[in-house]
Amino acid sequence: MDGHLVIGFRYEPGPSLDKARITRATKGYAQMFVGLKSLVSAACLTGSILALTACDDAPPPPRTPIELARDLATYTSWNRVAGYSVAVFGPDQVAYSGGFGYSDAENKVAFTDQTSLNVASISKTVIALALLRAAEDGFLGLDDPVNKHLRFQVTNPHFPNSQITLRHLAMHTSSIRYSEEVTDHLALKHSDMSLAEFLANYLEPQGIWYSPDNFHRRAPGDLGDYSNVTASLCALAIENAVGMPFDDYTMLELFEPLGMENTTWYRGADKEPLAAHYTITGKGEFERKEFAPDALYPSGTLMTSARDLTSMAQMVLNGGELGGKRILSEQSIDTMLDFKSFESLDDDIHRQGLFWYETRDQLGVEPVMYGHNGGHDSAFSMLFIDPETDRGIIMLGNTNLDGEHNHISYFNIYKALWYLSQAPD
Which of 58, 132, 290, 304 is 20 to 30 A from 255 (CA-CA)? Predict the structure, then answer.
C-alpha cells in the first residue's frame, strides 16, 4: 500500500482498484440502514467473507490512523466502490482524512480528500446554513410566510387560511407532498428552467404541473414529508430575500469564508465534477453515469470534497466559528440543531432540525448522531456527528449504495470510521 502521512494525520494512499445523473431524496435510505444490521448478522452465520469485519471473530477495530488506513485499503480491494474519500474529525483537529480508489476509474485518477464529487442530499445542510445567515442579516425571519419572499403564491388548497413558513420548509413539515415524479423526472427534463419558473409551475394554481394533490390533506406543521421541492423552495425564498442568486450567496457567505475551495453547485456543463460517478453492476464492474443539471439544484447538486465538508462541519461543532471567523452565531447553530419529534411519512428513527436531522443505527452505528446522508444512482454520502463526543465522520463515495453488490463495503468503511472517532486522543 503506497501512501504518506502528513500534518494533521491526513493520509492519502494511492489507488487500489483496477477497475443521466438522477437526484434522489434520501427517503428510503433510513429503512435500508435499519435492515443492514440483520443482513450482516445473517452473513456472519453463513460465513460470508465480505462480512468478516462485522462478525464476532473480526479483528480489533481501528484505534489509530494507520490502522484505519490499513482496514480501508482492505475494503477498497473488494472492488465494490470505485472511489471514495473519508474524514474523522473533532472541533479543532482532523484525526484522519484521505481518499481510496479512483475518482476516474477509466483514466486511473486517484481519489483524494480534495476530490470534488456530488454529495446529493447533504446539499440541504447548506440551505440551512444559508437560511440562518440570511436571518442574522435581517433579510428574513424563520417564521416568515414563504409567500413574503416569493413572486408567486404557495398555499395548501385544503387549508387556504394556513400559512406555510420558512421553518415549515426547513423542517419538512410544509404540507407539500413529496413526489418522485418531480424529483426524478421533471426536474431533470426541464433543467433549463430557472428555479423560480420550475417551482411556480408545480406549486402555483396556474402552473402546468399544478394539482391539489401536490399538497397533503394535513395543515402545514402537522406532518413530516421529506422533499427536494420544499428544500429548493426554501433556497428560492432565500435568494429573493437577499437579492442574490442562491449559489452566489452561499459562495460569498459560506464557501469562501470557510476556505471551501473545491465546493460549488452543479449548474451545467460549464463546470464538470472532478470525480466521475458510477453505478455498480457487479464485483469490479461499474457503469459510468453522465452527471446532468437539475432545475431543483439546491436540494441535491452540491459538489464538494471531504476536506471542504470537514471545514463546514467543524464550524458547526465550534458554534458557528472556524479559524477565528464567525460565520453564524451560537444561537443560530442551536436553533438549527433543535431536533423535534413529530409524525412523519419517512421513518420513526429520526428527529428533525432545520434540514439537519438526528438519527440512530446508520450503517450499523447504533448511537444517536446528527447530520445528513445523500445518495442517488451513482453516489452515496454520509456526514454525521456524535453529540456525546463532538466527533464527526464523513464518507463520500462516487458509487451508488446497492443492497446486492456493495452494502457490506460501505457498512465496513463507515463502521471503521466510527471506531476511530471513538478512540481516545
Answer: 290
